[in-house]
Write a structure and sequence with these properties.
Length: 576
C-alpha cells in the first residue's frame, strides 16, 4: 500500500514542522506581523502609561518604551522584507525580554499581570511563523522570564502556573492550527508543496533573488507515458512511482531548493543560487535517479532579472514541451541553441571576452610558479558573466570550439608576457574540445606561430574526461604531452574519478577540488587530503590545492605534503 507522506487533514509531519516554518511564514508575513505587534504593543503602552499607578519616572519610562516599539515597527516595516530569518527570531526574543522588564517594573502584582498579557503578541508570532525548534525556544524564554518577573512581584505560585499554562495552551493551539492549515499548500501523497504552495514560495524566492542580484533556474520534470504506467500497473502502482520519485529527488536537492508536485506526474524545482548549466546537469541527474523502467523529460529555464514566477514557469514548460516533442527521456534548456551559440560567437568577435590570470604558488617558497587562465564574458548591459554561466551552454551548443580557440590564442599572447619569468599558464580545456581529431595538432600550430615552447602550458581537464569512451581524448592528451605541455586533472574529488583510468592516462598534476580543501578546520582531521598525498606520490604526480582561502589552510596543506596551491589567499583572478 502507498502511504501518503502528509497523512490526513488534521495531522502534520512533526519532524518537518520542527525544521521548517509553515508555508505562511513568508518574508511578507514576517514583515507585516513584526510591524503589527510592535505597533500594537507600543501604542497600548503609550496610552496606558499615564493610567497605570506608579511614579512620574515610571510613567515616562513606559511612554518612551512604547514610542521605541512604534519607531522599531516603522523600521521593521521598511527593512523587514530584506531581513534574514534569524533577525525575526532576534526581534521576538528582544520583545520577550522587553515585556519581562516591563512586568518586573510594575507597581503591583495586579499591574504586572496585565502587562504580562503583552507576552501573547511575540508568542503568537513565534507559533505562527517560526519552525517549531525556534518557536519552542521563544516559548520557554517567555515562560521562564514571565514566571520569574511575576513571582518576584508577589504573584502567587498558582497564578503563575495558571498564566504559564494558558500561554502554553495558546501556543500549542496556534502552532497546530498553522501546521494543519499548511495542508492547503501540501500535496497529500508526497508531502511536497502543491501548486498553490509552490507559487507562493516561488514569488518570495524571486523577490529575494532580485534584491540579492543572484542567479537561479527552474526545472520542470514530467514522467513519460505516465498514463500508460497507470493503465498497465494500476493507480496504486502509479502513486508508488510518484512517491518514490519525490523521495529520491528530495534527497538529491540542495537545502534551498523548492520542490513541488505541481500536478499529476508533473514536478517543478526552483533552484536559487544555481546557474543554468549546473541546473541542467542536476536535471540530468534527477532524471537518472528514478525507478527503473520509467523515464522523465525535463525542461530548464534560467531566471532573469525582472522575471515573474509565471514567466519562469512558462519558459521551463516550453523547454519541457520541446523535450517531449523531440523524443522524451531528455533535458532541454530553454532558449534557441543556435541563437545562444551565435550570441557567444559574436561576443567573441566583438571583443567581449577577457582572460583573467590567477596565481598558483609553490607552498614552501610562496613564489608564483604559474597562472591559471579563467575566461570572463563582459556582456554589455549585463556586467561580468562567470564561466559557469556560459561554458556549459557553449558545450551543449558546440560554441565551445570557438571559445576554446579564442582562449588558447589569448593564452599564447599572455604567455609571451610572462615568458621571461619562467612561469607557465594553465588553460582549461573541455572534453568536447578534446574529442576533436586535430586538437593537439592545432595547439602545435599555434605554438609554432607564437614561437612558444609547449613546456609553458598546462592543460587542465576535469575528471569527467577520464570516463570518456572516445579514444580520441586520450590521443589528444598524449599529443599535448608530446609537445612538452603538462596535463592536470581539475577539480579532483568533486566527481567520481575512476582511479584505474587515472593510472592509465597521462597526468602530471592533480588539482584537488575546493570542496576538499574547505574541510581543513582547526581541530578536524583531513584523512582524504592525506590519502590523496599518498596516492599522488605513488603515481609520481604533483598536487595543487584549489580554493585556499586562509593561512591555516595553506600551512596545513604544506605540512601534509602539498606542493602547490591556488586560491584567494594567494591572489584572486585578475586582468593581467
Ligand atoms: P576551475 O578550473 O576549477 O577554476 C577555479 C575556479 O575557482 C575559478 O572560478 C576561480 O575564480 C575560483 N577560485 C579561485 N580561488 C578561489 C578561492 O579561494 N575560493 C573560491 N570559492 N573560489 C576560488 P571561475 O573563474 O568562475 O571558473 C569556474 C570554472 O569555469 C573553472 O573551474 C573552469 O572549469 C571553467 N572555466 C574557466 N575558464 C574556462 C575556459 O577558458 N574554458 C573552459 N572550458 N572552462 C573554463
Ligand atoms: Mg581549472
Ligand atoms: Mg578547479
Amino acid at each position: 500500500m502507498v502511504r501518503s507522506a502528509a497523512g490526513d487533514a488534521w495531522s502534520f509531519d512533526l519532524a518537518r514542522a520542527w525544521r521548517e516554518p509553515p508555508a505562511l511564514a513568508t518574508s511578507r508575513t514576517r514583515r507585516i506581523s513584526g510591524a503589527f505587534f510592535l505597533t500594537f504593543g507600543g501604542v497600548l503602552l503609550m496610552l496606558c502609561a499615564p493610567l497605570v499607578p506608579g511614579s512620574h519616572a515610571a510613567h515616562l519610562w513606559r511612554f518612551v518604551a512604547g514610542a521605541v516599539a512604534v519607531g522599531s515597527a516603522v523600521g521593521w516595516y521598511v527593512l523587514g522584507a530584506r531581513a534574514p530569518r534569524w533577525l525575526f527570531v532576534a526581534l521576538l526574543v528582544t520583545v520577550v525580554i522587553g515585556v519581562a522588564t516591563l512586568v518586573r517594573t510594575a507597581a503591583s502584582s495586579l499591574n504586572a499581570s496585565s502587562f504580562s498579557a503583552c507576552f501573547l503578541l511575540p508568542l503568537t508570532a513565534a507559533a505562527l511563523l517560526l519552525p517549531l525548534r525556534r518557536a519552542v525556544l521563544v516559548l520557554l524564554l517567555t515562560i521562564v522570564l514571565g514566571s520569574w518577573a511575576l513571582h518576584t512581584l508577589g504573584t502567587t505560585a498558582s497564578d503563575v502556573v495558571m498564566r504559564a499554562g494558558c500561554a502554553l495552551g495558546m501556543f500549542g493551539m496556534v502552532a497546530w492550527l498553522a501546521r494543519v492549515a499548511d495542508g492547503a499548500h501540501q500535496d497529500p501523497l508526497t508531502g511536497l508543496l502543491n501548486r498553490h504552495g509552490f507559487e507562493r514560495r516561488l514569488e518570495e524566492q524571486l523577490a529575494r533573488l532580485e534584491r540579492g542580484g543572484g542567479q537561479g533556474a527552474l526545472v520542470a520534470l514530467d514522467l513519460d507515458y505516465f498514463k500508460r504506467v497507470n493503465a498497465s500497473g494500476g493507480h496504486r502502482y502509479g502513486d508508488r512511482i510518484i512517491v518514490e520519485c519525490a523521495a529520491a529527488w528530495r534527497a538529491m536537492l540542495p537545502p534551498d531548493a523548492l520542490l513541488s508536485r505541481y500536478g499529476g506526474d508533473h514536478f517543478v524545482v526552483m533552484l536559487p543560487s544555481t546557474p543554468l548549466g549546473r541546473a541542467a546537469d542536476l536535471a540530468d541527474r534527477l532524471r537518472a535517479a528514478i525507478v527503473e523502467g520509467t523515464t522523465v523529460s525535463a525542461g530548464v529555464a534560467a531566471w532573469q532579472y525582472g522575471d515573474s514566477g509565471s514567466m519562469l514557469l512558462n519558459r521551463a514548460d516550453v523547454a519541457l514541451y520541446d523535450a517531449k516533442a523531440t523524443g522524451r527521456d531528455r533535458t532541454v534548456v530553454y532558449g534557441d541553441p543556435e541563437r545562444a551559440a551565435s550570441e557567444l560567437e559574436s561576443a567573441i568577435s566583438n571583443g567581449e571576452m577577457r582572460v583573467m590570470l590567477q596565481p598558483i604558488v609553490d607552498l614552501p617558497t610562496g613564489e608564483t610558479v604559474s597562472y591559471e587562465a579563467l575566461v570572463r564574458w563582459e556582456r554589455p548591459g549585463r556586467g561580468e558573466i562567470a564561466p559557469l554561466n556560459f561554458v556549459p551552454q557553449a558545450e551543449r551548443t558546440g560554441a565551445i570550439h570557438s571559445l576554446g580557440a579564442w582562449v588558447l590564442a589569448e593564452c599564447c599572447r599572455l604567455a609571451t608576457m610572462v615568458r621571461n619569468s619562467n612561469r607557465s599558464i594553465g588553460v582549461n580545456v573541455s572534453v568536447h574540445e578534446l574529442r576533436g581529431a586535430d586538437y593537439a595538432e592545432n595547439v602545435r600550430r599555434l605554438l609554432e606561430e607564437w614561437a612558444l615552447p609547449g613546456e609553458m602550458f598546462i592543460f587542465e581537464v576535469t575528471e569527467s574526461v577520464f570516463e570518456d569512451e572516445d579514444p580520441q581524448v586520450a590521443l589528444n592528451l598524449h599529443g599535448l604531452r608530446a609537445l612538452g605541455a603538462q596535463v592536470a586533472i581539475d577539480d579532483f574529488g568533486a566527481g567520481y574519478s575512476s582511479l584505474r583510468r587515472i593510472e592509465l592516462l597521462p597526468i602530471d598534476l592533480i588539482k584537488v577540488d575546493g570542496a576538499l580543501v574547505c574541510t581543513i578546520r582547526e581541530g578536524h582531521d583531513v584523512p582524504i587530503l592525506r590519502a590523496v598525498v599518498t596516492m599522488a606520490k605513488s603515481l609520481g604526480v604533483r598536487l595543487v590545492a584549489e580554493h585556499v582561502e586562509n593561512e591555516y589552510q595553506a600551512a596545513t596543506l604544506q605540512n601534509l605534503g602539498y606542493h602547490l596551491a591556488q586560491g584567494y589567499y594567494f591572489g584572486r583572478p585578475a586582468i593581467p
